[in-house]
Every structure is written in structure tokens, then in C-alpha cells.
Amino acid sequence: MKKVLAACLLTIGFGCRPAPPETIPLPTQICVTTQHHSWPIPNATIYVKYDADSFPGYLQPAAYFDAVFKTGQNARGCIAPVPEGRHWLVALGYDSLYYPHEVMGNMPVTISLDGIAKFDTIIYVSEKH
What is the pTM of this model? Predict the structure, then answer.
């Protein structure tokens, strides 16, 4: 009888706890500011290709990339969480303040929980050739 009561109490005790999460979010983040010379480039689109050993190029369709985010009016944007590994950022925007033309830039980024988990940088963009 005591064993049955103890088993019931244990079942009730464990049954009332919330289920553990299926995944634990990584404490990783990439933040960029897009800039042409010394001028901020707001509303740029940043494409991210995960686990890329080489530059993916500017002509890939959007579906080729693994993630995308935009910079705001202050030319700054972030994405989180991101997986560990070597990734490429490809920035496309429009410089409408000083020179009316499309601008682009790129940068490799390595994210590691043992190294740099949060990356914050400037992507310098230049005119589309």
C-alpha cells in the first residue's frame, strides 16, 4: 500500500512539471551596420549562407541563402541565434543620399561558442559594377 501511494505521489510530482524544451537556443548573434564610405546605408538586405567555405557571389537567388535580415533606418540589423560555423554575409542596398546607385558588400564570419559567439561589425559596401 505504501509503495503504491509513493508511486502515485512520484507520478503526480513529475506529471506537474513542465516538459523540458526540445531545443536550447544558442547564445549566438550577428549584428551589422551597412556603410558606404562614411555614410550609413539604411534598409539594406543581408543574406546569410551558413557553413560556406567560399564567397557565394551576388547573383544567387534569395532561396540559395539560409537566412536573411534587413538593416533599419539606422543602417543596423541583427540576426539571432545563428549556428556555429563559418558563414558568409552578402549585403545589398541602395545609396540614395549621396550617390543614387545600388551598393553591395560581403564578409566572412566565424561563430563559435568557444570563440566569438556574438559578432558585431560594419559591412562596407561599394557601387555595383
Answer: 0.79
